[in-house]
Amino acid sequence: MKALEGIRILDMTHVQSGPTCTQLLGWFGADVIKVERPGTGDATRGQLRDIPDVDSLYFTMLNHNKRSMTLNTKHEQGQDIFTRLIKTCDVLVENFAPGALDRMGFSWDRIQQINPRIIYASVKGFGPGPYEDCKVYENIAQCTGGGASTTGFDDGPPTVTGAQIGDSGTGLHLALGIVTALFQREKTGRGQRVECAMQDGVLNLCRVKLRDQQRLVHGPLTEYPQYPAGIFGEATPRSGNASGGGQPGSVVKCKGWEGDPNAYIYVIAQAAAFNGLARAIGREDWIDDPGWKKPSDRLDKLDEMFNEIEKWTKTKSKFEVMEVLNPLNVPCGPVLSMKELSEEPSLRASGTVVEVEHPTRGSYLSVGCPVKLSDSPVEVTRSPLLGEHTEDILKTVLCLDQTTIESAKSNGAL
């Protein structure tokens, strides 16, 4: 039995933030019914295509473990079918522009009247406030949630991260809100509204920078590269590749860096492992030197320290560095490219990277479920073709007869 088996999701989401959420619920066993516009479907089916006339990887990698039906919710008969779906589903998830469902005639009040037990979950750009009606995409969320202002180097512009913390990050937050609401429903018997703003989700992931904003009031941030010679302003600065956990860390070059943009490794000079690190790089003299002995003594020498570490790492591949430093309990990790990650056998074995067969585009790689449950193993199934399950859902979920279905088709409701 899957963890969410028996839970039915009415998936009105599109693009990335919402589909991330509903895919996760599908991985855990929920029956996810993705409702799409007839003829076109989710916009990402046709975006960033690498193969003509097939669903893009943008779509397929965000819509596994779902069923697709087409429905014209502006059509009277389509609205009747939508109402029936609300009655039979446990959760409705949407990431439309603010007020879109209300304008369709499905306010939260009406949805509650149709099904008092339903969880109505939404991704929005902003919570209540001056920007609540604004449209938001990934990079906007990163900029307005504190990610961009604290990412990059001090002498460069605000920078967005390659990780989709705005879209996918908010989808993960929303999934947690949904399962929490489902758990509470077991006690109360009532559904509830679940909302997650992208700005809020990004800020939650940037909490250590809000921590540092408050520390800054009491003096310079000694683990930041601006210390001791640089200038701190009124806001948490960009810290390059400095560690955010209070332990000095940096990206350093490895053998082959001249021709390989990812021949780098991140090394943390953790206090408990410092002596072993010093010996490994041939700087045993640091161990008994009063100027290097304590972590606080080393704070004004971090550039010198990592320059010395880099002299040593440049003589070895990033994996050879790992082989030396890991037994010494020195925290370190190679900069892995997407090519390296896609070919890593351990990620294939764990289901973190999966190969999926698709009827029109063939085999492709995707990210699998990052959460592993011992009693609810995940089997990643391919994304649905547009409207692939429309008739089956109408018959098995809504119990509509063939005459009604044909009528809906001919009238343009499907």
Which structural traits does this protein have?
36% helix; alpha/beta; 6-stranded parallel β-sheet; 18 helices; 11 strands; 3-stranded antiparallel β-sheet; 414 residues; elongated
Structural write-up:
The longest helix is centred in the middle third of the chain and has 22 residues. This protein is an alpha/beta fold and 414 residues long. Helix content is 36%, strand content 13%. Strand 2, helix 2 and strand 3 form a beta-alpha-beta unit. The model has no long low-confidence stretch (mean pLDDT 96). The chain has a six-stranded parallel β-sheet, sandwiched between helices. It has a three-stranded antiparallel β-sheet with strand order 7-8-9, covered by helices on one side. It has 18 helices and eleven strands.
Largest sheet: 6 strands, parallel
What is the 3D form?
elongated
Helix content: 25-40%
Number of helices: 18
Biggest sheet: strand arrangement? 3-2-1-4-5-6
Give me the Rg, rounded: 26 Å
Give the CA-CA distance, first to last residue.
33 Å
> Average pLDDT value?
96
List the helices and strands and how they pair.
Blueprint: E1 8-11, H1 17-27, E2 31-36, H2 57-60, E3 67-70, H3 76-88, E4 91-94, H4 100-103, H5 108-114, E5 119-124, H6 138-144, H7 167-188, E6 193-197, H8 198-205, H9 207-215, E7 249-253, E8 264-268, H10 274-280, H11 285-288, H12 295-298, H13 302-313, H14 318-325, E9 332-334, H15 338-343, H16 345-350, E10 353-358, E11 362-367, H17 390-396, H18 402-410
Parallel strand pairs: 1-2, 1-4, 2-3, 4-5, 5-6
Antiparallel strand pairs: 7-8, 8-9, 10-11
Helix pairs in contact: 1-7, 6-8, 7-8
